[in-house]
Here is the input.
Amino acid sequence: MSDASDHLPARWESLFHEEARGLNLALGAIRKAQGKRNPGDMEPGTPEWQAALADFAADLLSYSDMLCGEKKKPD
Here is the structure.
């Protein structure tokens, strides 16, 4: 099975990796400042880890929406 990254020049793959790593670190720092726990702070596979992972993903989606200017209007 072919992966999308098979078709990318090595420098692009490296840039995407660095951007993803930076986003992960930034979001982790923001969550820590907010008093939230990050999935990396817990034992993988535990219920607490799963909850933190879901919360991290929700924060990531919210941050993505904000960056793309697609902030949802309140109901």
Observations:
- Residues 10-33 form the longest helix (24 residues).
- The chain has two helices and no strands.
- The mean pLDDT is 83.
